[in-house]
Amino acid sequence: MTGSTTLAGNHGQQKKPVIACFPLYPPLELFHCMGLNPMILWDLKARIQDTQESDAHLQTFTCSVARALTQFLLADEAPGFDALFMYNACDTLRNLPEIIQAGLAGKGRSIPIFRLHIPTLALDQPHSAEYLQKGIKGLIQEIEAYFQVRFDPKNFSSSAFLYRHMRRQYRQLETQVAHGRLDFAVFNQLCCSGRHLPDTRHLAELAILAGPEHENQNALPAGAPQPRVLLSGILPPPPAVIQAMEKTGLCIAGNDLANLSRSYLADMEPLDDPVAYYTGFYSQHPPCPTLLPSADSRIPHLLGLVHSRKADGIIWIGEKYCEYEYLEMPFLEKQLKQKNIPLLQLECGLDDKENIGALKTRIEAFAELLRSSHGSIC
Amino acid sequence: MAAFVKTESGKRLTDMMTRNYFNNAVRAQEGGFVVWIAIVVPAEIFLGFENIVYAVPESFAAMTAARGFGPQLCQKSEKMGYSMDICSYARIDLGSGLASEGDASALGLPRPHLLISNNNNCSLLVKWFDVYHREWGVPHVVLDIPFCYENQKPKDWEYISAQFHDLIQTIATLSGQKFDLDKVREAVRYSSEASRHWKRFIRCAENRPSGITAFDSFVQMAPTLTMRGTSELAEHYRLLADETEARMAAGLFPVPDEKYRLLWDNIAPWHQLRKMQQRLAELKANIISASYTYCLGCLEGDYRPTYYSPDEDPLAYLARIQNFSICPQGMHLRRQAMTQAIERAGIHGVVFASNRSCKPYSLMQMDQQKYISQTCGIPATMVDVDHADVRNYNENNVFLRIEALLEQIDSRSEQHLKH
Ligand code: SF4
Ligand code: SF4
């Protein structure tokens, strides 16, 4: 069996009930403080062997994220999660809870699914703030009733503290990558394997890697010898593509990837009130096409990253069939062009292994382009 | 097989739609406040203002596709960088809207002062309208309508109602126009009346042979999107239902030798309407019903319609019926309604049109197909159709599957006879 037990085993706290969450920005602290092991189910491509189960439920024009997730959960060897949690993010995902439930029922299995609708209006409006409040309170009640646990504000604050610590460590590690002291692939792997659970083993791993470095993006050496790129998109590219980037001498100076910086850039002050905490968390969240109110700030955010990471160009990793990202790209491209920031658009899907050769060639050409204009940008 | 006949209602529809289109253009030119809306946005609210012109890009895209211009406009947007994997409505509309930069030409929709989308039909619409918001600097209001996996909850209803009140404020501020709730009340009454006649028209499918084809309903639904809340719409649907009933009484049926009664699940194949209808009729098959059109006016998993009663608060009612079409309904709710439709109309087989352009509609059909075959005991097939981009459509493949479905229906009825 390939990944599922490993994934569950990563937590090292099997006695706690595991709540598997999707997509990427669930209220982890809340589950954690109530004695659950929250685990984010994301980027499961490497953990599935085929898509047989998913293919019985989802058409092939579904993005790889949803197909891999469905496959992972419906496979016979799927780990025995105690519950699933999902919040609204995109049209593809909104259909999944019922599809997964139907698939499990077909196998004589069942699992409770908790849901939360995160308002897609700015949370500074009274109605949306109130709606989120009701949603969080309702979720707490449901978790309490189902798992027979109690919510305690103090525990919440401690969990929030732990997650903040972990996110900070990720940011330190990103600095190491930008300095060329840590492979991006290793960093990505580490973030993925942690699945955002601050268990002690994972935190220790992070601390060792982060070393004595302090987070200080502005201290990055100007005019570094290698062209520096920023990766943007929902998922990082497959390992072979990352290797190709690093082999051509590109330095991955930063990222705007959903599973990386979009997940760890928010630096929330620990609070004991989950409503106030998540109102802040979702309001200040780094922009992501799945968080609709954040859409307008994506371009300034990206430009800010280009500036702070001293990036020479951006490589956008398009997730095949993800209309959310696709609809943002042309305008983004136009804006970057106006600012003279080179952009390479790649597309990856479930069958990307077959396209690696073509992707490599385009990466090499892009690296050449950056080299030839190096120093004249930013 | 009956030849294709343009009914009186068909002619009136063409007139109405054309008039509405030109009126909108003229009113916009003369200073009307123009809003572009997603189809589920409650258009009745706009009728409460003095002079709001509302346009519906989805409907525009559907009509463009039906006229055969879909691929042309899709290609335009693809050249601008919009992926072929994006919904073809969005590509058609962006191809038309962005290509006409700065000019409100008679070929497109009048340029908007405000964009209003919502996320229950689909969230893609929000991203699509966001493109105009950024390109043109037009404000964009998003109505956040929690997706309905089950019947609407009170907290959802309160949340939606509150947003409608905010929307009215926003429009009043931006347009400088006054709002009159009584006018909305009247508009809601007309919509409800239109819905009542629409149901009468849809029920003509229950007759054997069916008095309509689903293709008639696809064409006739257009003013539900663009003229909701008007007396003209209510009157049109009254005449449509009357005419259809009268034709049935006179023994006039679209497929008089109808042998196979089918149900269609997904958006209309706009580029194929007449062609598909005729080819099916040659096989003595009629797609008599479609989830896309029987759902209009029904709520959450119910095939039966919901009506407005005059003592209700119209805004509260509009908030309650935000899930009046199928896309915002989850799989279990859709199943309930589909099962009722199958039973009432005596459906022999279901065609699930898997549509790569519309993920919210399509990404549950594989489970629906299994469920319907098992629980309703009728065969079902799945065909690949893109509702507006004919480049993603293969007629032969589709008909191979439909013919196989008809054979399955035959063999089931033979078995049935044997027992
Ligand atoms: S990759 Fe895009 S389509 Fe897929 S789950 Fe994420 S947001 Fe949805
Ligand atoms: S066709 Fe589907 S994806 Fe396209 S706008 Fe309509 S509901 Fe959304």
- Give, in spatial order, the strands making up the sheet with the most strands of chain A: 2-1-3-4
User: Mean pLDDT across all residues of chain A, rounded?
Assistant: 88
Q: Give the low-confidence spans of chain B.
A: 102-106
> What is the CATH third-level topology name of the domain at 19-178 in chain B?
Rossmann fold
**Gyration radius over CA of chain A:** 20 Å
Order of helices and strands of chain A: HEHEHHEHHEHHHHEHEHHHEHEH
Q: Could you tell me the radius of gyration of chain B in angstroms? A: 21 Å
Count every helix of chain B, treating DSSP H or I runs of 4 or more residues as helices: 17
Beta-strand content bin of chain A = 5-15%
Largest interface: A-B, 46 and 43 residues
Morphology call of chain B: globular
Q: Indicate the mean pLDDT of chain B.
A: 94
Oligomer: heterodimer
The CATH architecture term of the domain at 19-178 in chain B is 3-Layer(aba) Sandwich
Q: What key attributes describe this structure?
A:
heterodimer; A: 378 residues; alpha/beta; four-stranded parallel sheet; 16 helices; disordered N terminus; B: 419 residues; Rossmann fold; 52% helix; 10% strand; globular; binds iron/sulfur cluster
What does this structure look like?
The complex is a heterodimer of chains A (378) and B (419). Chain A has helices at residues 4-9, 28-33, 52-55, 64-74, 91-94, 96-106, 126-147, 153-178, 184-194, 200-210, 239-247, 261-264, 274-283, 298-308, 323-338, 356-373, and strands at 18-22, 37-40, 83-87, 113-116, 228-233, 251-257, 313-319, 343-348. Chain A is α/β, with parallel strands linked by helices and 378 residues long. In chain A, the strands form two sheets. In chain A, strands 2-1-3-4 form a four-stranded parallel beta sheet. Chain A has a four-stranded parallel beta sheet with strand order 6-5-7-8, sandwiched between helices. In chain A, helix 11 (239-247) links the parallel strand 5 and strand 6. In chain A, helix 7 (126-147) crosses helix 13, helix 8 runs parallel beside helix 10 and helix 11 packs parallel to helix 16 (356-373). Chain A is globular and about 60 Å long. The termini of chain A are far apart. Residues 1-13 and 213-222 of chain A have low confidence and may be disordered. With 419 residues, chain B is of the alpha/beta class. Chain B has a domain at 19-178: Rossmann fold (3-Layer(aba) Sandwich), CATH 3.40.50.11890. Chain B is built from 17 helices and eight strands. In chain B, the strands form two sheets. Chain B has a four-stranded parallel beta sheet with strand order 2-1-3-4, sandwiched between helices. A four-stranded parallel beta sheet of chain B has the order 6-5-7-8, sandwiched between helices. The longest helix of chain B is centred in the C-terminal third of the chain and has 24 residues, at 395-418. At the A-B interface, helix 5, helix 6, helix 7 and helix 15 of A face helix 5, helix 6, helix 15 and helix 16 of B. The complex binds iron/sulfur cluster (2 copies). One iron/sulfur cluster (SF4) is lined by residues 63, 65-66, 89-90, 92-93, 234, 290, 319, 322, 324 of chain A.
